[in-house]
Specification:
Shape: elongated
Structural class: alpha/beta
Domain HTH luxR-type: 148-213
Domain Response regulatory: 3-119
Number of strands: 6
Protein name: DNA-binding response regulator
Order of helices and strands: EHEHEHEHEHEHHHHHH
CATH superfamily of the largest domain: Response regulator
Pfam families: GerE (PF00196), Response_reg (PF00072)
CATH class of the largest domain: Alpha Beta
CATH architecture of the largest domain: 3-Layer(aba) Sandwich
Number of helices: 11
Keywords: DNA-binding, Phosphoprotein, Transcription, Transcription regulation
Distance between the termini: 49 Å
Helix content: 55-70%
Length: 218
Amino acid sequence: MIKVVLADDEAMIRAGVRAILSTDPEIQVVAEARDGHEAVELTLSCRPDVVLLDIRMPRLDGLAAAAEIRRIAPDTGVVMLTTFGEDEYITRALGDGAGGFLLKSGDPRELLAGVRAVAGGAAYLSPEVAHRVISQLDGGRMRRAAEARARAGGLTPRERDVLALLGAGLSNAQIGTRLHLVEGTVKTYVSAILARLGVGNRVQAAIIAYEAGLVDGD
């Protein structure tokens, strides 16, 4: 039996997804969550094989919940189920370790296939998402973005603030003014950031900041 925790803040969506899953006698929804925080707690208490997560939820969104679930329960598969197919969501979800990404507008059979695949340790993308991924793979952009997010994720919040401004081309003095820090403190942060990212100069760090999505595109 494949045990599933279903997380979505809309009761009607949860009911519809549960109804689809119930058509497969080997899949059982063991618990439902209304937000990402509940999904994480239920993962710990129910130890499901798969967690189905909506992306936009209160308290803790699906992407953050996915990352936390992968940290606390690495053997639990994560499937993102959403109405949003934008590339940034796909990149973040897969970078955070999600094994599947399905659109709510897809064929119900995709939901069953996706849960089965991820429960078995495989990956599953709906056809529309797969098409987006293939187009993103040109030049390895998706892979680089996922790697950059993972590396930047190891920094402290303040270090990420400094990295974002460094990526935007600001000098140490300008960063200090923006963040209300003395220039010497900024230099210390920059040195620590370079060491944590494993890069040799500001240009390499700036590239990681950009690929990780820390730099505004405006």
